[in-house]
């Protein structure tokens, strides 16, 4: 079994991944900025250096990891108040990521799994599910920084011999989910009317436990080296279908108003939220055939099972 170092181990995806690794018999060290929050059984390493500065110097003598899974990142935010958002994203998601790779290689790590984002590829699918070999067209500073980090890692891997594996998930959901997915569940649970009934475009999602399982494959499978993978549940839903399924599992009514998409676009322009509306009404499906073929991966949970687990958590926590 492997010894795996997970950055961001106390986060939403990090905790699920550490659980999957521990269940598989692996030794797990969590690299975090603040103590606490790691799953029981995870060895905690607290490093407070800004954007992983001086990481190699701080590396514990006893830590001999086989693989690093890099989850820590400056995440996408809807209303960024930074004066230069792209510079801030680059500082963490590009420069910080490269520092992790360099420190890992210097300490004998053979593989790094980088959790990127489908936003590194595109915000929409242009009529067919996005494949890994499609031209990358990131549309915001977050997506741009993730794409640049991918490019920097690939180049560093060629120069150093560090095996690089890149994983691009779409929207991740599951227990402890935050941001827009949590807002949607709150609105549904309160029985609020939502203007989603006329949206027909489908979007890919990935249940956090499915993503964790895919990442374990990327850690352990020799065939993953040098690959880029799109990972999703494989059961794409419209926003209306998603809301109805959540309502069923939340034991709440789905009050979906069929507001024409053209009206939603106008509302987006009037409120300065065109980008958010475009993401809501646009199609973003990903092609997951590459990881299924190359690694023999199949998501262990259906989308309905994932949504049911998410709703159970919400009902218990709220």
TrEMBL record:
Origin: domain of life: Bacteria
Family matches, as InterPro entries: Epimerase_deHydtase, Lipid_A_modif_metabolic_enz, NAD(P)-bd_dom_sf
Residues annotated as domain NAD-dependent epimerase/dehydratase: 4-230
PANTHER family per the UniProt record, alphabetical: BIFUNCTIONAL POLYMYXIN RESISTANCE PROTEIN ARNA, BLL5923 PROTEIN
Protein name stated in the entry: NAD-dependent dehydratase
Species annotation: Paraburkholderia phytofirmans OLGA172
């Amino acid at each position: 079994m492997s010894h795996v170092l997970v950055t961001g181990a106390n986060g939403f995806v990090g905790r699920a991944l550490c659980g999957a690794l521990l269940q598989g018999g692996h030794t797990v060290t969590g690299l975090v900025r603040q103590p606490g929050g790691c799953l029981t059984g995870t060895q905690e390493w607290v490093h407070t250096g800004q954007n992983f500065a001086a990481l190699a110097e701080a590396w514990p003598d006893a830590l001999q990891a086989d693989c690093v899974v890099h989850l820590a990142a400056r995440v996408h935010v809807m209303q960024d108040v930074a004066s230069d958002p792209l510079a801030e994203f680059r500082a963490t998601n590009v420069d910080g990521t490269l520092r992790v790779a360099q420190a890992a290689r210097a300490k004998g790590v053979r593989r790094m799994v980088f959790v990127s984002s489908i936003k590194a590829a595109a915000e929409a699918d242009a009529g067919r599910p996005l494949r890994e070999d499609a031209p990358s067209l990131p549309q915001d500073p977050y997506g741009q920084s993730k794409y640049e980090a991918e490019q920097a890692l690939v180049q560093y891997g060629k120069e150093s011999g560090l095996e690089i594996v890149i994983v691009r998930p779409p929207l991740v959901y599951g227990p402890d989910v935050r941001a827009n997915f949590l807002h949607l569940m709150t609105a549904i649970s309160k029985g609020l009317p939502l203007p989603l009934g006329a949206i027909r475009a489908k979007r890919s999602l990935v249940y956090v436990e499915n993503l964790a399982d895919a990442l374990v494959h990327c850690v352990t499978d020799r065939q993953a080296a040098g690959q880029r993978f799109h990972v999703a549940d494989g059961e794409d839903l419209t926003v209306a279908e998603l809301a109805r399924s959540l309502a069923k599992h939340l034991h709440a009514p789905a009050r979906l108003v069929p507001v024409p998409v053209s009206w939603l676009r106008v509302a987006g322009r009037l409120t300065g939220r065109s980008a958010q509306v475009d993401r809501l009404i646009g199609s973003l499906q990903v092609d997951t055939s590459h990881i299924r073929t190359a690694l023999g991966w199949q998501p262990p949970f259906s989308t309905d099972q994932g949504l049911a687990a998410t709703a159970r958590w919400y009902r218990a926590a709220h």
